[in-house]
């Protein structure tokens, strides 16, 4: 069994986790007792993190290389990274050119660092010219907020 220290991807707290694996398969996750954000404790989402990485799930959901459909309704096929980035860039630019900068938006992770949020805001607002930027924190933590209000008061 191999152990790898990492960060839980579920929210912005950044809890430390120790990932247990056998070969390429994740077999367990536990809190990292040496991590200052959580001192080994994990919420329900973090403690069940390994269940999202079972072989059955990852074989169905994990992409290992870029994929592209040549036409609507056709099966996607693998393409190279340069082609994928060039295609995404061209399509993004076309939408902005045809419909304006507010036709695009960014929905980013709640796990990013402050500096990462700064860069995404510069990209969205400074380069693209749109205010359409949000994070999954708004919905991800809404259940926690409801629980906090009931248990701790408003």
Helix content: 25-40%
Beta-strand residue fraction: 15-25%
Radius of gyration: 20 Å
Termini separation (Å)? 45 Å
Features:
single chain; 154 residues; alpha+beta; Phosphorylase Kinase, domain 1; 2 domains; three-stranded antiparallel β-sheet; two-stranded antiparallel ribbon; 7 strands; 39% helix
Layout of strands and helices, then pairs:
Blueprint: E1 2-7, E2 16-22, E3 25-31, H1 44-47, H2 55-61, E4 67-68, E5 77-78, H3 81-99, E6 106-108, H4 114-128, E7 133-135, H5 137-140, H6 142-152
Q: Could you please describe the fold and organization of this structure?
A:
- This protein is of the alpha+beta class and 154 residues long.
- The chain contains 6 helices and 7 strands, in the order βββααββαβαβαα.
- The longest helix has 19 residues, at 81-99.
- The protein is globular.
- The N and C termini lie far apart (45 Å).
Structure, briefly:
This protein has helices spanning 44-47, 55-61, 81-99, 114-128, 137-140, 142-152, and strands at 2-7, 16-22, 25-31, 67-68, 77-78, 106-108, 133-135.
